[in-house]
Amino acid sequence: MILRMLFLLNVIISLQGCKKNTISNTELPYSIVLIVGQSNTHSGIGLNSEIDTAENGISQLGRFGADDMQIISASEPLQHHTKDDNKIGFGLTYAKLLKEFSDLPSRILIIPCGYGGTGFRDNHWNQGDYLYNDAVTRVRTVIENNPESVLTSILWHQGESDVGSPSYETDLDNFIINIRNDLNATNVPFIVGGMVPFWVDQTIERIQQQQLIMTVVNRHNYIGYANPELPFRIEKQDNFFDVVHYDAEGQRELGKRYFNEYDMIVN
Q1: What is the mean pLDDT of residues 32-50?
Q2: How many other CB atoms are found less than 10 A from the CB of residue 123?
Q3: pLDDT tens digit string along 87-103?
Q4: Cα 256 from Cα 4, distance rounded (Å)
Q5: Alpha carbon of 54 to those of 48, 93, 249: distances in Å?
Q6: CATH assignment of 2-266?
Q7: pTM for this one?
Q8: So where are the chain's domains?
């Protein structure tokens, strides 16, 4: 009930924001990174103010209050639909590596669209659903206001809420196809991330779900899998604490693996 109330409140706030058709602070074109999915896009507890720092040349599209649809500093926690002051995701680590090691000609803009506890079977991420539309609208609005801006990558982390769904493979495949079509991004790298290995190992349904996520690379082009098992297994000091989520250290490592997949796709 609490999640539903928070979701409805956020819908109202975001719908108000969607009425805006301009974005301020857009002097330069942007290399856009879209982050979509559920809580493991941003729920790693252990934000470190000395490590998880904002960096010149990396911005985010704000979501809350006066920041909505504005280009602001990409400071943690990023403005996903749900966030916590002590939690981070993989997005900023990924963006920093993108800035350092890629030859992108423009500033990096993260568009954070993760929402905890959401999936396909609860009608949040299918084409036409609210969260799907919100992500598409935000990317389009940035590009419309900055014609030279380019969507460089789509980072997806989701699956926990849909464990056991018989249609998950089809739903995920349709999502990839549809959002690429809607964003004119057929050849844009799309990278999916694996769920927390310790949590996955507890049931056969979760293991099967991880396999569906992992094998998506066999079904699409320009796609990668950020593997939480390689080159080593991402774990926590206490795997039973917040068992379904990566901690902040794990999120930083996951960000590196997302970037490595991106780098292999483009090179």
Answers
A1: 97
A2: 13
A3: 999 999 999 999 999 88
A4: 33
A5: 12, 10, 17
A6: 3.40.50.1110
A7: 0.91
A8: 2-266
